Amino acid sequence: MASRHIGLRTAVLGAAIAGSVYRSVRTIRKARAILPLHEAPPTTVLPPTVTVIVPARNEAAVLDDCLHGVRSQTYDPRGGASGHPSGNDPTLRIMVVDDGSTDATGDIAQAHADADPRVQVVRSEGPPPGWSGKVHAMHVGVESAGHPEPGEWLLFVDADTVLAPELLSRLLATAERADADLVSTPGGPPSEHSASWPVLMPAGLQMIGENADPSGRGSKAFAIGHCILLRRSHYEKMGGWAALAGRRNEDVAIATSVRDHGGITRTVDGLDHVTTSGMDPFRQGWVSFRKSFVAGTQGSLTVLIGGGLGQVALSLTAPVAVLTGVRAHRPVLVAVGLVGWAAQGTAHTRTARVMRAKASLAPLAPFTNALFGGVLLDGAVQVLRRATEWKGRNTGF
């Protein structure tokens, strides 16, 4: 009887490890689908207009660096090659949406507008009913830019993101080479960053990639809100942000909508030219991932709890198999566990490399992956808390 019980446990562990290995192989394959960032070729052709939209709510701590990065782009204004405005018809337009800020965000944005005629500040008092805040701010930015121009591109940049000078030119070159209508790149870590990068990023990228594809295939197309470049013609074709008014996972949503309306979407590796401070310190990174997964699951407790527990279970199966095999003197089970452990470590190394995070924690991948399950479970706790607070306000308790 004991032998049968051990055999059943071995079969269960083996099946779980097979699932873990499959996930790891799939992660590595999807990471390979991310496009490299191409050099911008020299051209004498009149470049298209690019309208940059920067939504900003209480971003005084980071907005100045963001706008300096946008203004320093080597993507030339018409009539000049200096990277500075020359005339009244700039190729690069910058719309900063001060989204109901109560700090110095508006003042910082206005200082840049005073120094550079390409910069325009738009004030919004926050989203109306039915809109999420960031989506509405980006909608306001596009609408304030006026009617579409032939060949125009839209570049959406988070306020906590800093672009290197060549980023826009190279991103456009990559989009043209891939014949893509939307390209997106995540931001890499700043020079001083928290443990959220080596601990949370590998598992986070894996889980997002399991639900969205960098090459635009599958049920959802992958995009990262740090930096999204989109042909305005396809933006108009899919209905713009108004078609996604209430969405909170707006990056994946707009990429998927563009794809579903006949566009081509690709994820690009621009992390050497884009940095974000939005994942630091560690708690902020945790909260950022939690918000993303709550939004992506539409606050479903079933998905958040099931996904969180499943992530913990699949991640820890390999160490459990090794420990069980050692105790039961079953070398086959130890070997199977080590294969699963190695697969998770390899996937961790690959995703860490993509995100420019050190891969030194790869040997601990089962445990960092299990920790990420806590992000989803924490999301379930937050959903329950909000539901309880809403019920209390509406019942008078």
UniProtKB/TrEMBL annotation:
It holds the Pfam family Glycos_transf_2. It comes from the Bacteria. CDD domains: Glyco_tranf_GTA_type (cd00761). Residues 51-238 form the Glycosyltransferase 2-like domain. This is GT2 family glycosyltransferase.
